[in-house]
Amino acid sequence: xxxALATTCPYCGVGCGVLxxxxxxxxxxxxxxxxxxxxxxxxxxxxxxxxxTLDLQGRLLHPMLREPGGALRRADWNEALDRVxxxxxxxxDSHGPDAVAFYVSGQLLTxxxxxxxxxxxxxxxxxNIDTNSRLCMSSAVAGHKRAFGEDIVPGCYEDLEQxxxxxxxxxxxxxxxxxIFQRMVAAKEQGAGVRIVVxxxxxxxxxxxxxxxxxxKPGTDVWLFNGLLSFLFRHGAMDAAFVDAxxxxxxxxxxxxxxxxxxxxxxxxxxxxxxxxxxxxxxxxARHEKTVSLFSQGVNxxxxxxxxxxxxxxxxxxxGRIGKPGRGPFSITGQPNAMGGRExxxxxxxxxxxxxxxxxxxxxxxxxxxxxxxxxSQPGLKAVELFDAxxxxxxxxxxxxGTNPVVSLPDADGVKRALEACELVVCSDIVEATDTNAFAxxxxxxxxxxxxxxxxxxxxxxxxxxxxxxxxxxxxxADWQIICDVAQRMGFGRDFQFGGPRDIFVEHARLTAFxxxxxxxxxxxxxxxxxxxxxxxxxxxxxxxxxxPVQWPVTDEVRGSSxxxxxxxxxxxxxxxxxxxxPGRAPAxxxxxxxxxxxxxxxxxxxxxxxxxxxxxxxxxGHVSEPYIDMHPHDALRFGVREGELARVHSRWGAMVxxxxxxxxxxxxxxxxPIHWNDQFASDARVGGLVNPVVDPVSGEPEFKxxxxxxxxxxxx
Length: 717
Ligand code: SF4
Description:
Layout: E1 5-8, E2 17-22, E3 28-32, H1 45-48, E4 64-66, E5 72-74, H2 77-95, E6 100-104, H3 110-124, E7 129-131, H4 138-148, H5 157-162, E8 165-169, H6 173-176, H7 178-190, E9 195-199, E10 212-214, H8 221-234, H9 240-246, E11 247-248, H10 250-261, H11 264-271, H12 275-287, E12 291-295, H13 297-300, H14 305-318, E13 328-331, H15 338-343, E14 350-351, E15 355-356, H16 360-370, H17 383-391, E16 397-401, H18 405-408, H19 412-421, E17 424-429, E18 442-445, E19 454-457, E20 462-466, H20 479-492, H21 501-517, H22 541-545, E21 550-551, E22 577-578, E23 597-602, H23 618-621, E24 628-631, H24 633-638, E25 646-650, E26 655-661, E27 670-674, E28 707-713
Parallel strand pairs: 6-7, 6-16, 8-9, 8-12, 9-10, 11-22, 12-13, 16-17, 17-18, 23-27, 24-26
Antiparallel strand pairs: 1-2, 2-3, 4-5, 4-18, 14-15, 19-20, 20-21, 23-28, 24-27, 25-26, 25-28
Helix pairs in contact: 2-20, 3-20, 3-21, 4-14, 8-10, 8-11, 8-12, 8-14, 17-19
This protein binds iron/sulfur cluster.
Iron/sulfur cluster binds near residues 16, 46 and 178.
């Protein structure tokens, strides 16, 4: 083996450091990096098995073009890139810039994300570029912006080790962010009296380490936290000095909370939990000064996801528990670079450096920095609406990068129909055969993990390098390179001549510093504009190659700040955080006689997304080998299905078939199906086809956790 290279795991948002080395025999050695602050040498089983997923079987190694008869043929890069650039140009000339769109991924590196957003928003002139991160954390982004004035995660992983009370809301941390969970449990074992509360409708693996589990009815989180806000206020837990000096809006938020949830007995009834357990949680929260509330998809993936986020943040603002060690609301990201994408304007409503597309001053700043011919004039289409626009023929050319929406989006059969109807579908991917690539007119081979070079940002705002230790296979190219090649063919060459990822990173860092020196509509002092990488704007190639993990902001004055808001100054123009009134709202679709069960979806421990990589490891398949429908034995009896036998689960949007299992942790009236399996691994196994396409009105994040369904024996008896 050659010397090990320090890189970053490509799976979840924990962002663990990995030491990787490739041997002459083609094998790859993987160990946890003991010097990486996110994991201090730990890896979960997915990270440890990375070396088993890197073979070239199934890899897309050359550009492919679809012939008029439907067959794919190999093409050279010039022909494929010309086809993409010319087709995009023709569509724009005939139908305007909003007739093209991009759907990208939290798997992209920050440098890839930056150039594709620059191309779309600044040069083509459309904001129709959204990301699969819309599906996992956009409600947290929207909640942060409402409360803090910018999308800022206040805390860091060390807070979880310093807390006296950890509240895990809608997060199966043990399976979905395992190394964070390991750190938390290790701290609990060492620290006398540390308590963990899990708020989740299911009894998950995370609950095994909990001191209290509140199995709330899905969708009732806002009532639970409104009730907590009301309880904290009435029982003297308010930090009045903090609220007076640093916040606004308490009266309205309290009025909404009291109206909804002023009576704990009523909250317990609405949430479906024991009153005594609810009061235990409320009392523990009131009593423990050092409290962290960690949340993820169970909160975000909801038609009231943004309100859920703000209802949690409200409780931290009331108690002044933010910006201090061991305290804070903490949104954990699902993907390795969901956070990096946010930093460079990866969402359809954002611009780079945390600026907003709806703000004319921000648009002017970005356009003048890029010196670009256009800037998109309004926010673009968010993920679900973007595919609706494709189906309606408004978007005629779509470029999908590193994601598999035919499996992962809600109403996934509708996504299939949209791609069938689309004039031009371009897919950049590492894998040749996916459910989405089946609809591609152009397939472009991208570099994968171990081959790519750039940066990612973890859930705690830590920028960390992904470094290549494997050669580029076949004709595969870096995503940023492919995007720049197309940009040059579209006539934007001068501004897409990057020598490598370091040049792109430095331009991104310069833009964050540039923003802070421009007068802006928010009237905010520069120090309050939080994402600033000014000190990284002069990185040499050598510095970039050697970059050690660092949290932002990184300025000449501040290097690697662990916690934001330590001084009580927030990013709203008056420096104050906002309480947000969050009246409770039921999920969009209630179960009924036709669809009497509620479908919840999520991850299993050892698979990642649509299994294009983890599906290669037999070790990982050993944990859960096939898709399943987890349901309560009483419901199985009621609907005539048996454990171990196949059943068909269907909704108003679609159907799938899987084996029934009684995992033991699910409420009567509910079923759980994992998100990973798809038609490449099992037939009729895409749960996305069932999921309702309802989204949160603020964030656009879909309601993956609450779709009414029916279950019946398969084949139908
Ligand atoms: Fe990778 Fe997440 Fe596991 Fe860390 S916890 S090794 S980042 S999958």
